[in-house]
Amino acid sequence: MKAILALEDGVWFEGRSFTGDGEAGGEVIFNTGMTGYQEILTDPSYRHQLVCMTYPLIGNYGINFEDVESNRIQVSGFIIKENCPYPSNWRKKKSLAEYLKEHNVIGIEGIDTRALTRHIRIKGAMRGFISTKELDPKKVVEKARSIPKMEGLNLVDDVTTSTPYLWTDKGPKEVNLEEKFCWEGEGPRVVVYDFGVKWNILRLLKKEGLEVLVVPASFPASKLKDLSPDGVFLSNGPGDPAALDHILNNISEFIYDYPIGGICLGHQLLGLALGGKSYKLKFGHHGVNHPVKDLKTTKVEITSQNHGFCVDISGLDHLKITHINLNDNTLEGFVHKKRPIMAVQYHPESAPGPHDSRYFFNRFAQMVRTGEINF
Fold this sequence. Notes:
By secondary structure, the chain is α/β, with parallel strands linked by helices. Helices cover 21% and strands 32% of the residues. The strands form three sheets. An eleven-stranded mixed sheet has the order 11-10-13-12-14-15-20-19-18-16-17, with helices on both faces. A seven-stranded mixed barrel has the order 1-2-8-6-4-3-9. A hairpin with a 4-residue loop joins strand 1 and strand 2 (12-17). Helix 8 (245-254) packs across helix 9. The N and C termini lie far apart (55 Å). The model has no long low-confidence stretch (mean pLDDT 96).
């Protein structure tokens, strides 16, 4: 089925839908991963985005029930060079096309993804629209221009959990915090604020021996004390951190009361709450091959990343930069000099991606146990 992908600057591509009739709009970004499309599709950080995969053949190992990062597909649309209609893998339960159709997410193939990626790399991430219903490129361009820009968007409310849950070895277990709540294990207790949390973050926190309770993004600071946590974790998520004033105000109420860690959007929110400023990156960092330098060890890690915004903490004497991006020298991690607060911009849970940065979870667990940070 013929489909048009149009960008807000007037550039358009003709391809074909491999998921049937449909339309979708969002910010067009590219991801450099050769594998991991299932994790990318279900990562809440990709909300309101049309994701273009730079690797030419996608779908060859199908879809399984294990490699998901949330309970649904989160991307608005999926852009690839070629879909594999006959996947082969011992864990495969269905094809990529079947999976997208089940979630009413449009997939487009047959376009020059190299040309699209190069265009975004030069011009920057921009709004786009995919349609099989409207095939006049000029009209599809107008549809792209009518979509809200990412700046100023609160997307956390779209992806956060509606009910609290404990993370167990078998996955999420809903709990009712209005009744008497009891932690199930004996490990240090961590409350995770869900701004769009990836499940592999929860898996790795649990692997460190922590008891993990996930709460909605709007969970009030006044109720944290009743849960008796030993630490707080701020998760990844989509959208503009500067648009989340209500969340920032909430964080400010408990920021010095517990050891706190953050990843991605959680990193940005901690940076803003501590006095920093955020700004939009030209085309963002999306992929599994971004070099990051640990300033303490001087080691270089190859990291998985997915963010369109960055935080500037220059001039803040109470914070110490711990990691920088070697492609553009942007901030990738910081700690508080006197308080047990640590955060990284990249994704150490690596789903998908290399495992170079998974030590982050051990450092966070040690900080929760001791109340001190070793940096």
